[in-house]
């Protein structure tokens, strides 16, 4: 399961969220946020609403009057981790409210943990607030409880996730996200830009655009224009790029109109980075997944993107061991990866998800075969990554500083998203650097996934 970093999880780090000074009698809430960045944005919205109502935010279990656990329910392994997190919160605190994707299955949660105070589903903000009010009544003091203009953020101050839509119109057989989060619902472009402007004014240097299907943004609104802004990903990306922060696009499906984003990267409005969930390359596997079976044309698109923007970084994720996947189909995936030469690659071994249509497909792959294919896939992806990073030796790269300690500065290039990609480390002359600084470095050393350099 993709989970949020330990620094923002009170179940993994006791000092995860900076504690507000607590006034006498002020109710306090803790938060455990699991799952993808979209869930993290939901957690931030919930905490922002609670903070506005006078609640303090606790960085640990002991200091909280109640704990909210924002769960993930995409895979069985994610469900198990969510149940473990709920159990730990019950043990450490005792008063637990559950929300998020797994909340769509309340009986599953209460069957394992009958003592939870309430269970709500994904993005059911009002129901979460109602549950908190019932468990810990609010006690606001408008003269003391001041809320930052940017709201409560669970990421470092210099970058922030910007969710542009909810839900998904795809019907991939291995996925139950549309069942949990519904069909695509896009936010108005002017509302997104207003939020982005507030974030940049508050010091955010990098905006990470997320949704379930970023390319489809505005389809449900028929790309209508409102208050001078059109609800289309190309227009939105251009408008965001004019705010002066780095803009990074995640979860972009390779629709034909994606090529219109590439010139924005050449102009410097958007980072030359695309996160595209290809999932597989063999047309028969993609058909069984109910995905667009256009791997050959995708290679043509990749070539066109690189011709237009030679510096573009391409990230993707794949599934190996999908039901019915033959050795020949898997070999096609390896051959495709050889030709595509993607910069950043992640891989998952297929597993059943309760309610997913893929569970009923014939030809489920044995666990040892899935493990072997995963190992072979990652070996090839690692070799490609290492070769691409070696090619950056001696080059100058603009980087953003994420963390500075006594040993050095941990940074990211434009080719690296936080938590999922590599880092660039500076171990000399870093003393004056601070998180959020954007500086230029020369690359001295390269590993399989990370770089080292000097100012």
From TrEMBL:
<dbReference type="GO" id="GO:0005840">
    <property type="term" value="C:ribosome"/>
</dbReference>
<keyword id="KW-0411">Iron-sulfur</keyword>
<feature type="domain" description="Radical SAM core">
    <location>
        <begin position="154"/>
        <end position="387"/>
    </location>
</feature>
<keyword id="KW-0004">4Fe-4S</keyword>
<feature type="binding site">
    <location>
        <position position="36"/>
    </location>
    <ligand>
        <name>[4Fe-4S] cluster 1</name>
    </ligand>
</feature>
<dbReference type="Pfam" id="PF04055">
    <property type="entry name" value="Radical_SAM"/>
</dbReference>
<dbReference type="GO" id="GO:0035599">
    <property type="term" value="F:aspartic acid methylthiotransferase activity"/>
</dbReference>
<dbReference type="InterPro" id="IPR006638">
    <property type="entry name" value="Elp3/MiaA/NifB-like_rSAM"/>
</dbReference>
<feature type="domain" description="MTTase N-terminal">
    <location>
        <begin position="27"/>
        <end position="137"/>
    </location>
</feature>
<feature type="binding site">
    <location>
        <position position="175"/>
    </location>
    <ligand>
        <name>[4Fe-4S] cluster 2</name>
    </ligand>
</feature>
<dbReference type="Pfam" id="PF18693">
    <property type="entry name" value="TRAM_2"/>
</dbReference>
<comment type="similarity">
    <text>Belongs to the methylthiotransferase family. RimO subfamily.</text>
</comment>
<dbReference type="GO" id="GO:0046872">
    <property type="term" value="F:metal ion binding"/>
</dbReference>
<dbReference type="Pfam" id="PF00919">
    <property type="entry name" value="UPF0004"/>
</dbReference>
<feature type="region of interest" description="Disordered">
    <location>
        <begin position="1"/>
        <end position="24"/>
    </location>
</feature>
<dbReference type="InterPro" id="IPR038135">
    <property type="entry name" value="Methylthiotransferase_N_sf"/>
</dbReference>
<comment type="function">
    <text>Catalyzes the methylthiolation of an aspartic acid residue of ribosomal protein uS12.</text>
</comment>
<dbReference type="InterPro" id="IPR005840">
    <property type="entry name" value="Ribosomal_uS12_MeSTrfase_RimO"/>
</dbReference>
<feature type="binding site">
    <location>
        <position position="172"/>
    </location>
    <ligand>
        <name>[4Fe-4S] cluster 2</name>
    </ligand>
</feature>
<dbReference type="GO" id="GO:0005829">
    <property type="term" value="C:cytosol"/>
</dbReference>
<protein>
    <recommendedName>
        <fullName>Ribosomal protein uS12 methylthiotransferase RimO</fullName>
        <ecNumber>2.8.4.4</ecNumber>
    </recommendedName>
</protein>
<keyword id="KW-0808">Transferase</keyword>
<dbReference type="InterPro" id="IPR005839">
    <property type="entry name" value="Methylthiotransferase"/>
</dbReference>
<dbReference type="InterPro" id="IPR058240">
    <property type="entry name" value="rSAM_sf"/>
</dbReference>
<dbReference type="InterPro" id="IPR012340">
    <property type="entry name" value="NA-bd_OB-fold"/>
</dbReference>
<dbReference type="InterPro" id="IPR023404">
    <property type="entry name" value="rSAM_horseshoe"/>
</dbReference>
<dbReference type="GO" id="GO:0051539">
    <property type="term" value="F:4 iron, 4 sulfur cluster binding"/>
</dbReference>
<dbReference type="InterPro" id="IPR013848">
    <property type="entry name" value="Methylthiotransferase_N"/>
</dbReference>
<feature type="binding site">
    <location>
        <position position="101"/>
    </location>
    <ligand>
        <name>[4Fe-4S] cluster 1</name>
    </ligand>
</feature>
<dbReference type="InterPro" id="IPR002792">
    <property type="entry name" value="TRAM_dom"/>
</dbReference>
<feature type="domain" description="TRAM">
    <location>
        <begin position="390"/>
        <end position="455"/>
    </location>
</feature>
<keyword id="KW-0408">Iron</keyword>
<keyword id="KW-0689">Ribosomal protein</keyword>
<feature type="binding site">
    <location>
        <position position="168"/>
    </location>
    <ligand>
        <name>[4Fe-4S] cluster 2</name>
    </ligand>
</feature>
<keyword id="KW-0949">S-adenosyl-L-methionine</keyword>
<dbReference type="GO" id="GO:0006400">
    <property type="term" value="P:tRNA modification"/>
</dbReference>
<keyword id="KW-0963">Cytoplasm</keyword>
<keyword id="KW-0479">Metal-binding</keyword>
<feature type="binding site">
    <location>
        <position position="72"/>
    </location>
    <ligand>
        <name>[4Fe-4S] cluster 1</name>
    </ligand>
</feature>
<keyword id="KW-0687">Ribonucleoprotein</keyword>
<dbReference type="InterPro" id="IPR007197">
    <property type="entry name" value="rSAM"/>
</dbReference>
<dbReference type="GO" id="GO:0103039">
    <property type="term" value="F:protein methylthiotransferase activity"/>
</dbReference>
